[in-house]
What does this fold into?
Amino acid sequence: MALFDKFTKLAQERAALGQSGLNPFGTRIDEILSPTLGRIGDREVVLAGTNNYLGLTFDPGCIQAGQQALALEGTGTTGSRMANGSYGSHIALEAELAEFMQRQSVIVYSTGYLANLGVIGTLAGPSDIVLLDADCHASIYDACRLGGAQVIRFRHNDAKDLERRMLRLREQARSALIVVEGIYSMLGDRAPLAEIVEVKRRLGGYLLVDEAHSVGVLGPNGRGLAEELGVEGDVDIVLGTFSKSLGAIGGFAASRHADMELLRYASRPYIFTASSSPASIASVRAALRAVQNQPELRDRLWSNARHLYQELNALGYRTGPEPSPVVAVLLGSPHEGMAFWQRLIELGVYVNLVLPPATPGGQALVRCSVSAAHSSEQIDRIIQAFAHLRDCLPRTAAAGDDLVRTGGLA
It folds into this structure.
């Protein structure tokens, strides 16, 4: 077998999808005009697929902090955290995150993906068991492979199924690692964290919550789902990212166990990866202050999210199970999903197109990311685009009729 022959089936699938002339893979946004506006080709579009939940990518304080760090400390560290890549600002950010998250230990990684690899892949070795929600992010699955742990999946958001599997493990359950997410990125639904905590209290285990999509979004102070539900004391490790609400790049792990500091000497993605640039660290520190000092950002985010979710439901679209800054609309086949996504761009709205196998049930979906920076007029523009597709596609093309009747509508 030649080196790339293993990808033949993938190439055929992508070629079949590309026969329509559409190419959603690696969409190029030619110009960023604001946190919520961009240009694709010659068309201005509302950016509704960016995960920029608090709109902080253009925050003046964040930009000024990044520019100042760039001028004072240069473009990059050119080294790992263990070598020459821990600057004073890296240590300061870890201390500020520890205070914000109310945790004893925080370790900053270069990306959120690496944080998952570095923590889960190091903690869960070949003799360990990981119980994880079936819909967990790919980086969590990759982390389990890296560490070689035994993986036991339980049904998505099903605490009863988790309990059944832990009961079968008997005494082994007491040292197992349970992994869930705060907000799941495909449908925007939340983990039943209170129920999972109740199982953990009875049967043991260590609980890790990936709050990538919920830090800055949920909780009175923006610490995530665990804070919102009042169960922070039962969560052993929180994983987070800087590339969502904090508007930059990087990731972190926060734990109530001081012994997590030992991972600095064992976590290969920490030891052998160059650290985040000073500009990124500085902008994250400024964004973290904004999260703490501007709760009105969360208020605006949730007002926008609920409005979009309610209106899309009123139009008859099949959305995720609850309001969320991630508003997913489930469609039909990949071809139908691509046509729908392309029409949205033509109407001036950019969202994420997600295709199987990343989607639940083998359906295509489009995913809207709502931002605090979206104006009410921009949210209405998104709603109007979806309304136009519902109203116009059946009259304009047979394929459009199929798309709306069997795909995007309940």
Remarks:
- The radius of gyration is 22 Å.
